[in-house]
Amino acid sequence: MEKNMVQAASQKKAPTSSDANLSIVLSLMCHTTCHRQGGETEKFAKRAIESLVKKLRKKTDELESLISTITTNGAQPSKCVTIQRTLDGRLQVCERKGFPHVIYARLWRWPDIQKMEMKHLDFCRFGYDLKYESVCVNPYHYERIRSPTDEREKSMHHPISTRNNTTYDTTETRKAFRVTRSHHVYTHLYFSPYISTPQAYVFVENLHPSLNLRSYIF
């Protein structure tokens, strides 16, 4: 029954802030990343959207902005869509807690995004990291950036080439890397965090004569 209502809502034009809450929720459900998945995921999405629409009921302009930006996939310029910041900065939905801007970004844009990957855009007045009492949860007021972990892993996967064109792959071991070879060659690579271009200093513990390894910068 509920699925049929959602499907019917997807075929109608976008609602307005004057429409009933259920009509707005069903329309916004059609644009979630979990649309038609069913189960707990879709149940969570519906509860999260119901909670947001209810909070925005007295802020007509923000509710209109939410409807417009979600139903057009961000094609229309939109205002901040704000909710009150809680004491711990998180929002509880269906007995699950999460950061509000992350919850709604996962619902409508990036289902796998993490908090550290989100950055509010310059025009967003109430971005989560600004620490205001109100928090913007408009998913189109944020951009996805590479997490520090992704950047670190990317810089750490450069191969090392020797003079005889033998290439070795690196594997992270905390802050150091170790390159091994079957005939007892061990090298340790340390990256300097103070330089933008990755540099590796190769220290040879047991150097095989044929490799002629020295320090390399890559």
Question: What are the defining features of this structure?
Answer:
218 residues, two-stranded antiparallel ribbon, Smad3, Chain A, 6 helices, globular, single chain, DNA-binding, 30% helix, alpha+beta, 4-stranded antiparallel β-sheet
Number of helices: 6
Structural class: alpha+beta
Q: What can be said about the biggest beta sheet?
A: 4 strands, antiparallel
Distance separating the two termini: 60 Å
Strand order of the largest sheet: 9-10-11-12
CATH superfamily of the domain at 17-144, by name, is SMAD MH1 domain
Query: What would the average pLDDT be, to the nearest integer?
Result: 75
Using the alpha-carbon principal axes, give the shape.
globular
Uncertain spans:
157-218
Top CATH class of the domain at 17-144: Alpha Beta
CATH domain fold name of the domain at 17-144: Smad3, Chain A
Subcellular location: Cytoplasm; Nucleus
Protein name: Smad4
Family: Belongs to the dwarfin/SMAD family.
InterPro entries: Dwarfin, MAD_homology1_Dwarfin-type, MAD_homology_MH1, SMAD_MH1_sf
What order do the helices and strands come in, and which of them pair?
Blueprint: H1 2-10, H2 21-29, H3 39-56, H4 60-71, E1 82-84, E2 91-93, E3 96-98, H5 100-108, E4 118-120, E5 134-136, E6 142-144, H6 148-156, E7 160-161, E8 167-168, E9 171-173, E10 176-181, E11 185-191, E12 200-204
Antiparallel strand pairs: 1-5, 2-3, 4-6, 7-8, 9-10, 10-11, 11-12
Give a verbal description of the structure:
With 218 residues, the protein is an alpha+beta fold. It has a domain at 17-144: SMAD MH1 domain (Smad3, Chain A, Alpha-Beta Complex), CATH 3.90.520.10. Helices cover 30% and strands 20% of the residues. It is built from six helices and twelve strands. The protein has helices spanning 2-10, 21-29, 39-56, 60-71, 100-108, 148-156; strands at 82-84, 91-93, 96-98, 118-120, 134-136, 142-144, 160-161, 167-168, 171-173, 176-181, 185-191, 200-204. Strands 9-10-11-12 form a four-stranded antiparallel β-sheet, with no helix packed on it. Helix 1 crosses helix 2 and helix 2 packs across helix 3 (39-56). The model is unreliable at 157-218 (pLDDT under 50).
